[in-house]
Design goal:
By secondary structure, the protein is α/β, with parallel strands linked by helices. The chain is built from eleven helices and eight strands. The strands form two sheets. Strands 3-2-1-6-7-8 form a six-stranded parallel beta sheet, with helices on both faces. Strands 4-5 form a two-stranded antiparallel sheet. The longest helix is centred in the last third of the chain and has 34 residues.
């Protein structure tokens, strides 16, 4: 070999198909995951969906409350379950606002929950005002009685006497500042739990169990819960202890679809989008701001799960080929 001749480099063996399938760099995997998870947020993707019976029951219950009535809403969620609970809260409140139903907010889940709920209502009010709809006013349409540090004690008290449980609680009245909540017109004559047509619990914690244990049979109860709480909440629903519930992103997507299409309502093509033999025609709110986190995140969930399934299949094929080649 001459002095200036290049040193020969070893020839790299070509990778087998099995090696290629099982050696994709993590960087590329993360890039693919980011793409699959974010793309549905920027494009309109509709996932075919049949609402669960529990979701239809929840929607029918909310739509059955008469305008001017007052319902209890236990807002027991914060930003820790925002991905599911915020959309659920917005959907429930949109329905109640549009129906002209008044709300008494309380929380036993987290000290931050009342403020989170009030901030959410403020955003919904901006949405309403932008569409030329009347403001959902504090004191006249909703009051907040705040946070109760002991969920067991609060719900036990409500089972006996709501007015006594809320004694001393104050909210802002126009021109008066902090005022006893029972001076609000929406609480007039509602001293017992039986005086309320519905209690809705929006939660990501065990407050749902506490509510059922102490208030079931005294007032109709409905839930929206996180996805992991769906199976246990289903037991309450099947036993008749609650009248309906929406679970996780699926339940939220159900609610948004029900708000847009109603139940047993013919669409533009004359075909009924959501059918139910249990109920007569229940109108929706077509064309209004119904789509939210459910319509954005539910397709994203499907894309991410599809990627996971594809990755598992590719990994297993690669392992199979590698073992086959080693024999």
């Amino acid at each position: 070999m001459a002095k200036n001749d290049p040193i020969p480099q070893p020839i790299k063996p070509s990778m087998s198909l099995a090696e290629k399938l099982t050696s994709l760099p993590k960087f590329y995997l993360y890039i693919i995951l980011i793409f699959f998870s974010s793309a549905p947020l920027f494009i309109n993707v509709t996932v075919p969906n049949k609402p669960l019976e529990s979701s239809i029951d929840l929607y029918a219950t909310l739509m059955s409350v008469k305008p001017g009535e007052t319902v209890l809403v236990a807002s027991d969620w914060t930003n820790s379950t925002r991905g599911e609970s915020w959309g659920q809260f917005n959907s429930v409140m949109r329905i109640l606002m549009r129906r002209g139903v008044n709300v008494v907010l309380y929380s036993t889940g987290d000290a931050q929950a009342p403020r989170v709920a009030q901030d959410s209502i403020a955003k919904l009010n901006k949405e309403r005002l932008a569409k030329g709809e009347p403001e959902y006013k504090r004191w006249e349409n909703f009051v907040s009685v705040g946070f109760f540090s002991s969920g067991e004690a609060a719900t036990n008290g409500m089972a006996t006497n709501v007015k006594a449980t809320f004694a001393g609680r104050k909210d802002f009245a126009p021109g008066r500042g902090l005022t006893d909540v029972y001076e609000s017109p929406i609480l007039k004559g509602r001293e017992k739990i039986e005086n309320f047509p519905l209690l809705i619990v929006i939660t990501g914690s065990k407050t749902s169990n506490i509510t059922v244990e102490r208030l079931s049979g005294k007032v109709p109860i409905a839930f929206t819960v996180t996805g992991v709480m769906g199976p246990e909440t289903g037991n309450f629903y099947q036993s008749g202890q609650i009248v309906g519930f929406a679970s996780g992103l699926k339940g939220l997507y159900d609610l948004e679809g029900l708000m847009e299409n109603g139940v047993n309502v013919p669409g533009k093509d004359g075909q009924i989008v959501i059918k139910s033999e249990k109920y007569p025609k229940i109108d929706g709110f077509p064309g209004q701001p119904n789509a939210g986190q459910g319509s954005r995140y539910y397709p994203t969930l499907h894309f991410a799960v599809a990627l996971l399934i594809l990755a598992v299949i590719i990994g297993n094929v690669g392992m199979f080929l590698a073992r086959k080649g080693a024999k």
